[in-house]
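FORM 7B: Structural annotation worksheet

SECTION A. Query
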Amino acid sequence: MFSIACGYPDANDAARADDPIHKLLLDRDPIGGDDLASQPTLSRCENAIDTKELYQMSETLADSVIQRHTQRLRHRVHRVTIDLDRTDDPTHGAQQLSFFNGPYESWCYLPVVGFVSFNDEIERVTPQ
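SECTION B. Predicted structure
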């Protein structure tokens, strides 16, 4: 997740084990801290999971989110709303897996962002 936030689309681009921002995000000294996992190690982890396992992980994540908020709301959950929104992320140059998107009139990635709310809550709850 941190790699994506830092602009690396996948583990193939994470050949910078000494990236100071990554180190800082992981509570390491950005200059003198130990290096992070190598690109081949990250690629093995990234490619070790098949589609079935990925789907099972998403089900487990959904179950844990619902369980946590059910406890938070003292078992008074009568409606769960999942709001999925797309957002454009324009690309520049020949970036892998970027496509021309007519409605946005640009070459871009089109990630989907999900928000979950319970009952009639308007504000999103921050995990504690």
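SECTION C. Observations
The mean pLDDT is 79. Helices lie at 2-5, 20-25, 39-47, 51-72.

SECTION D. Sign-off
Analyst initials: ____
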